[in-house]
């Protein structure tokens, strides 16, 4: 990162304990609520989804003085699919049919206290580089750990330029996304391959330096928090009603990730 | 200069412009920008402009020979102290409007110019201080 932005602006790492996730989900809720992205009747002060209960889902954070001030989550494709399948399944399927390993970048949130209000992200270098540092973690994890081929994202059209700047290409046209209170959305994808590196290296020296200059220390990724049965109960029954609302297919996927009978047992306790 | 804290980019980008007035437009002229930001640009001219005057301009970013068309308004104009015989004026312009296509071009090109400016070392930059030399087509 230029000028050691990471050191200057807190520490970037993978969520490694329950408290990291709790703070991250609370930050997402606060930021989404302030933008009107939380649907009426949403019954939690945390913004999370059943995808967060899957072991393959990974949350990245930036912490300043023990407080999570930025977060983003990577959700690799699974039997449950990815969140944006709700409105862009046909589009994501075109990538799956090519045998591409797909994941969705989701729940990006930055504490709005960090940067001056009224500054458009694309014109504010410090904010931009702060976001890039978070994306750098996701990017390195996606290509070096998960060996993914495609990063997909559904974004509000007002944020589309950030992704275009980062070589994302349009995957799906304008739709309205129920899970963010029917806010407008566009789908983008980034193909991670040698051609991407060659394109960036040839045309975009600064971006190349940021994203390919130095790989993230792989030890950071080994500290990833593993959600235990107690955490499932805490986040998905005590702090939200997501497990109760899960459909059969979702429940089957979740059950496979936890000890046999555990999901049924805790669901019985919260009836 | 505190390069990395500034939001303005001290890039000497080429700009072609004409001033719009009640009696029509002036002839096209060319100058170099003193700095540029997401909200406007600064330049030095040998003549003054009136606050509120409208400018039609084409900004030439180093990444592409195709300029970005902008409309801007004079926000301030100050005579500079100078030992030279010719008077020089520092002028601040604010963008007025972009059409959708020009807006996207401007955002992406400005953003890259800014990231280059604050990220690359002097030896990695081109002579105008806006980007790597090998990228310069214009």
Molecular structure report:
The complex is a heterodimer of chains A (271) and B (138). Chain A has 271 residues and is α+β, with helices and mostly antiparallel strands. Chain A is built from 12 helices and 7 strands. In chain A, helix 4 (125-145) links the parallel strand 4 and strand 5. Chain A is globular, with a radius of gyration of 18 Å. Chain B is mainly beta. Chain B has one domain (14-119): Beta Barrel (Thrombin, subunit H). Chain B contains 1 helix and 7 strands, in the order βββββββα. Chain B has one helix at residues 100-119; strands at 14-21, 24-25, 29-36, 40-45, 54-60, 68-79, 89-97. In chain B, strands 1-3-4-7-6-5 form a 6-stranded antiparallel β-barrel. The interface between A and B is medium-sized, with 21 and 24 residues.
- Count of separate structural domains of chain B: 1
Distance between the termini of chain B: 27 Å
Quickly give the CATH architecture of chain B. Beta Barrel
Helix content of chain A: 40-55%
- Compute the number of helices of chain B: 1
Largest sheet composition of chain A: 7 strands, mixed
Topology:
The complex is a heterodimer of chains A (271) and B (138).
Chain A (H helix, E strand, L loop, with lengths): L4 H4 L2 E4 L3 H17 L23 E7 L2 E10 L8 H13 L4 E9 L14 H21 L4 E6 L4 H6 L3 E9 L5 E9 L2 H10 L1 H8 L5 H5 L6 H10 L3 H4 L2 H8 L6 H8 L2
Chain B lengths: L13 E8 L2 E2 L3 E8 L3 E6 L8 E7 L7 E12 L9 E9 L2 H20 L19
């Amino acid at each position: 990162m230029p000028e050691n932005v990471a050191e200057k602006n807190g520490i970037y790492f993978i969520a490694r304990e329950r408290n990291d996730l709790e703070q991250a989900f609370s930050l997402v809720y606060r930021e989404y609520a302030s933008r009107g992205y939380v649907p009426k009747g949403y019954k939690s002060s945390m913004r999370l989804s059943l995808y967060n209960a899957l072991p393959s889902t990974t949350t990245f954070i930036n912490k300043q003085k023990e407080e999570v001030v930025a977060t983003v989550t990577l959700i690799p494709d699974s039997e449950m699919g990815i969140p944006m399948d709700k409105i862009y399944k046909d589009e994501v399927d075109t990538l799956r049919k090519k045998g591409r390993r797909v994941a969705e970048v989701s729940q990006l949130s930055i504490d709005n206290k960090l940067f001056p209000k009224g500054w458009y992200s694309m014109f504010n270098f410090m904010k931009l580089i702060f976001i890039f540092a978070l994306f750098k973690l996701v990017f390195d994890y996606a290509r070096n750990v998960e060996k993914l081929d495609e990063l997909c994202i559904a974004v509000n059209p007002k944020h589309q330029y950030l992704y275009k700047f980062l070589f994302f290409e349009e995957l799906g046209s304008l739709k309205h996304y129920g899970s963010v209170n029917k806010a407008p959305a566009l789908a983008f994808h980034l193909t991670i391959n040698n051609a991407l590196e060659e394109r960036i290296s040839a045309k975009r020296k600064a971006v190349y330096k940021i994203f390919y200059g130095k790989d993230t220390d792989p030890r950071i990724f080994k500290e990833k928090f593993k959600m235990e049965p107690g955490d499932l109960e805490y986040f998905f029954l005590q702090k939200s009603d997501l497990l109760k609302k899960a459909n059969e297919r979702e429940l089957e996927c979740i059950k496979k990730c936890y000890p046999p009978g555990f999901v049924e047992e805790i669901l019985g306790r919260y009836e | 200069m505190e390069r990395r804290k500034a939001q303005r980019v001290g890039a000497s980008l080429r700009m072609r412009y004409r001033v719009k007035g009640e009696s029509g437009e002036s002839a096209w002229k060319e100058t170099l920008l003193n700095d540029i930001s997401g909200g406007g640009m600064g330049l030095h001219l040998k003549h003054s402009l009136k606050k509120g005057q409208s400018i039609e301009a084409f900004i030439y970013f180093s990444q592409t020979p195709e300029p970005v068309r902008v409309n801007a308004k004079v926000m301030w104009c100050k005579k500079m102290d100078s030992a030279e015989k010719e008077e020089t004026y520092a002028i601040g312009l604010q963008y007025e409007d972009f059409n959708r296509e020009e807006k996207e071009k401007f955002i992406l090109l400005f953003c890259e110019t800014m990231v280059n400016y604050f990220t690359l070392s002097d030896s990695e930059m081109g002579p105008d201080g806006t980007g790597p030399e090998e990228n310069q087509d214009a």
